[in-house]
Amino acid sequence: MNIDEEKIDQVVLALLWLNLHDGCRVWKSFDWDAMQRLHGNGYISNPASKAKSVQLTGPGMQAAERLFKHWFSSDGA
Length: 77
What we know:
Shape: flat
Number of strands: 2
Distance between the termini: 7 Å
Oligomer: single chain
CATH class: Mainly Alpha
Strand content: 5-15%
Helix content: 40-55%
CATH topology: Arc Repressor Mutant, subunit A
Radius of gyration: 14 Å
Largest sheet: 2 strands, antiparallel
């Protein structure tokens, strides 16, 4: 699979904009509400913990791979 890094950069930049505050500052993590929704849909472990990471569930792993290929593959996969 060929990775279209320009698409990745565009999505990361768009996600940074999602966390915009104080004019032009952005948080380096993903939107809390989005993380809660992913947990509610069974894709990730509970994000409300002291850990700096979450675990993908089985369905989350499958969906993440499918979406990664959909959005970031430059070879039409």
